[in-house]
Amino acid sequence: MVAANELKAGMTFETDGKLLRVLEASHHKPGKGNTIMRMKLRDVRTGSTFDTSYRPEEKFDQAIIETHNAQYLYKMDDTAYFMDNETYDQYEIPVDSVENELKFILENAEVKIQFFGTEVIGVQVPTTVVLEVAETQPSIKGATVTGSGKPAIMETGLVVNVPDFIEVGQKLEINTETSAYLKRA
């Protein structure tokens, strides 16, 4: 059991038969009354997100999430295929539940598959990835890093705001948590 005031971003817990992941958590002390915990949560099974609040002393069952190293194989129709690196078991995950993560991974990339018991609940990508620029406006001569930037479409379809000097074909390091350009690779 874990109290609401101990829940942090990234933690997963069970309540009312739902498996919920904390996206954001903060204490809130209104002018009158007791402290409450404001949280942004995602239902792991359905993918829906919502905001809610709990009393700090409310208790929940913390979910035990296991991760296994896996390799992303390919996407076909509405299913993404992954293979466990140790057992060579293949997992089929609906694209709807890993749509955001697929923007950061190429075929044959290493990822971690998250399990709740025997149920596959998601994919964990590295904090940074290297992707190639597939499409962007031509670079501007004499552009500096401090410019406003321009959008670039990466090889996975991810759109990232990059500095004006970036050209098609360059490899860039991207932060997967914020979808932000970090540097040239």
TrEMBL record:
Keywords: Cytoplasm, Elongation factor, Protein biosynthesis. This is Elongation factor P. The gene is efp. Its main location: cytoplasm. Residues 67-121 form the Translation elongation factor P/YeiP central domain. It comes from Pseudolactococcus carnosus. It comes from the Bacteria. Residues 129-184 form the Elongation factor P C-terminal domain. Belongs to the elongation factor P family. PROSITE patterns: EFP (PS01275). Pfam families: EFP (PF01132), EFP_N (PF08207), Elong-fact-P_C (PF09285).
